[in-house]
Amino acid sequence: MNDVLSILLLGIGATVVTDAWGLIRKPLLGLPAPDYTLVGRWIGHMADGRFRHDRIAAASPVKGERALGWIVHYATGVAFAAALIWIVGFKWLRAPTLGPALAFGIATVAAPFLLMQPGMGAGFAASRTPNPNSARLQSLITHAVFGFGLWAAAWMIRYPG
């Protein structure tokens, strides 16, 4: 399997695990699954030079925002997978261990805390949401699940190279 395909499978696999968690948390915790439509709206407005919103839900809809949001969600998973491999090397894919993947997954929570949430009007680390600590905890758990997904996907595709 070539390097690019390995990274694609790693990122997609980890993102699928994250999405499964999003579906499971509804019956477990009563929390709805994420909807990436508003991410698509946020990204869509960037084409017009608008990178920050007071409340993304109040911004005008963007054509294809749901599909755009889901594409960005999976592309981000692939980009994060590439970053992990850049840090640990392809050797890790031959014998993946949970530690690096989990640590990296948790570290990726910086992206929503520092970029996405402020840009969409939720404030730094969800500070402008009705329950910031709950939002922060859910982000942290979701990104830890993504890290677990990186490890699980790596284990499934084990790089022979």
Describe it for me?
- With 161 residues, the chain is mainly alpha-helical.
- It has one domain.
- 70% of the residues lie in helices and 0% in strands.
- The chain has 7 helices and no strands.
- Helix 5 (98-107) packs antiparallel against helix 7.
- The radius of gyration is 16 Å and the shape is globular.
What is the strand and helix layout of this fold?
Elements: H1 3-29, H2 37-46, H3 65-88, H4 91-94, H5 98-107, H6 110-120, H7 132-157
Helix pairs in contact: 1-3, 1-7, 2-3, 5-7
Notable features of this structure?
161 residues, globular, mainly alpha
Mean pLDDT: 95
Poorly predicted parts: none
The helix content is: 55-70%
Major β-sheet profile: none
Summarize the structure.
The chain has 161 residues and is mostly helical.
